[in-house]
Amino acid sequence: MCGRFAMYSSLQDLLKYIKTVSGRDVYTPSYNISPGQYAPAIKLSDNMLIIDKFKWGIDYTYKNKRSLLVNSRIETLTDRKKIRTNSRFTKCVIPANGFYEWKSRKKPFYCYSKTSNLLFLGGIILRNENTEQFSIITRESQGILQDLHHRMPLMITESIMTDWLSSDWGAILPEFDFNDLVMHPISTEINSVKNNYPELIEQQKTDQLELVF
Along the 213 residues of the chain, how does pLDDT read in single tens digits? Predict the structure, then answer.
């Protein structure tokens, strides 16, 4: 799963990958993006990759209770015909410097790439009349993340981004080198959505052997 992530690179850094921006106020760099907030996402428009900002979390009602769909299982997306055939749903890619995962509330970790400054997370956008909202797609955990949680974000490599965005929902999962992922323990200050500063991703020393991977 993915319940919080960091995207602190500048818009100029993003434009090294994507050349087109939709709107002037695309996003505000953040070390602690949480559901309900706005974040940048990449989508196809007229066969071009563009960056825009979208609300994280798709509004839905379940048993008369309103909630946010923050994560979407890849298995569900490929099985549900109403999603595959509904033009209001489309794929997107969420750029992130890294994301956070918890072994418990007292043991948060920062997960990121050891070879690239950015990760690209697969997502789904729901277009409504007045807004576009996204949910991060998850899959079964692989590599070191299996020690933290049974689900992880779907990773998209830069080289196949356009092909993945233009493919149908039943396409094979994109290949990703899970050996490229690294993580380290961080401060529990990340637990509060009010905290937002670079120190959140700094590695914390620990004497607990169970935190060494």
Answer: 789 999 999 888 888 777 676 655 777 899 999 999 999 999 988 888 888 889 999 987 767 778 888 999 988 876 655 555 566 788 999 999 999 999 887 899 999 999 999 999 999 998 877 788 999 999 999 999 998 889 999 999 988 898 999 988 766 677 788 899 999 999 999 999 999 999 999 999 765 434 444
Q: Are 44 and 168 in contact (CB under 8 A)?
A: no
Q: How many CB atoms lie within 10 A of CB 73?
A: 16
State how far the Cα of 75 lies from the Cα of 177, in Å rounded to an integer: 20
Interstrand relation of 65-69 and 48-56 (parallel, antiparallel or unpaired): unpaired
pTM of the model: 0.89
Tally of residues, the chain:
213
- CA dist., res. 52 & res. 106, Å (int): 34
